[in-house]
Specification:
26% helix; twelve-stranded parallel beta sheet; two-stranded parallel ribbon; 20% strand; single chain; alpha/beta
């Protein structure tokens, strides 16, 4: 601890980039946390970035409790990662919820929370441009509640440009055989005019509650890791994304979103990049038709980049011919059939 105190002292008035992690320490005690806070606390005016990555919820709360009375005028990046990385054990009765994050951070532009849930009414969110939430929290809520939480986030963060709502990485999901139907949405959709980059990695009920009730007129990049299950709202959502330049679909059963690719022939006029990762039953003829249609329609940007990783049957009729046609009309093309992608 002494050498860190020396470094802080020698830094004088320079901006500080601080990372606190329990991983290197065998026995991280409350006294250790308090010693760290006492060392770096008097210098919060100089903090430029601050990361707790990873730490126990107890450690996180001690540190944030100290910061509740502090001003961090230069802080522009905050990352908090709880040990579990968002995984929940069945016996845990409560979310790893943080107290309201009320400390003063007028310059905060990027916030990442992994394995913890914050009070989204906090002023911490107001000036954000990038928000990354990685947790099971949204998926465990009722669909309408999940939608309300996301809408609250968007209202609280009017300047937000990038929003990534993701599940814990590499978590296996179990799909319900008959996912519940959602009530027809009758309210006016919420419009967020500044968001340009959106990742939604949610189960169907939360996903289908959010997509039809929200409009993103400035959105340029949409990535949706999803399950091979019926998606009612994707074509309708695409029709509203007039600024979209990049679309990525992950783990979709393309036969269950059969209207989505044809919809791209007359929507998303700025779309140039299409990514289909680990999808099922991809029809190259539909891809070819889409490319051709966009080249023929006035005001449509032609597809310049297509990446398809798996999902194409190696017995697909005229596979080589269709690939060659696509190579002639798409500037950057990557196409792997199922066998090609699964080769060691």
């Amino acid at each position: 601890m002494e050498k860190y105190a020396t470094w802080v002292h020698r830094s004088k008035d320079a901006p500080l980039h601080i990372v606190i992690s329990e991983r290197p320490l065998k026995d991280f005690t409350v006294k250790d946390v308090e010693a760290i806070v006492e060392m770096i606390g008097p210098h919060t005016q100089r903090w430029k970035s601050f990361q707790i990555d990873p730490a126990s919820l107890k450690t996180i709360r001690i540190i944030l409790d100290y910061l509740s009375d502090c001003s961090l005028p230069q802080l522009n990046y905050l990352r908090i990662v709880e040990w579990s990385n968002g995984f929940r054990s069945p016996e845990e009765p409560e979310w790893r919820s943080l107290e309201p994050l009320a400390f003063n951070t007028p310059q905060l532009r990027k916030l990442e929370l992994v394995g913890v849930v914050a009070d989204f009414d906090s002023p911490l969110f107001y000036n954000l441009q990038t928000l990354h939430l990685e947790d099971e929290y949204l998926e465990q809520l009722e669909a309408q509640t999940a939608k309300n939480v996301v809408h609250q986030l968007l209202r609280q963060s009017p300047h937000l440009k990038q929003l990534h709502l993701e599940n814990p990485r590499s978590r296996l999901r179990f799909m319900p055989q008959n996912p519940p139907s959602l009530p027809l949405i009758t309210e006016d959709p919420l419009t967020h005019s500044h968001l340009v980059d959106l990742t939604l990695d949610l189960q169907r009920t939360a996903y289908d509650a959010i997509i039809p009730s929200t409009r993103f007129p400035a959105l340029r990049s949409l990535h949706s890791p999803h399950h091979p299950q019926y998606d009612l709202y994707l074509p309708e959502a695409l029709s509203t994304l007039t600024s979209l330049e990049e679309l990525g679909l992950v783990q979709f059963d393309m036969t269950q979103v059969a209207r989505a690719l044809p919809a791209l022939g007359h929507s998303c006029p700025q779309l140039s990049d299409l990514y289909l990762y680990y999808c099922m039953r991809v029809d190259l003829n539909e891809i070819r038709s889409l490319v051709a249609r966009r080249l023929q329609v006035d005001g449509m940007t032609g597809l310049r980049k297509i990446h398809i990783l798996g999902g194409i049957d190696d017995a697909f009729p005229e596979l080589a011919e269709t690939k060659n046609w696509l190579k002639q009309h798409v500037e950057h093309l990557t196409v792997f059939t199922n066998d090609e992608w699964n080769q060691p």
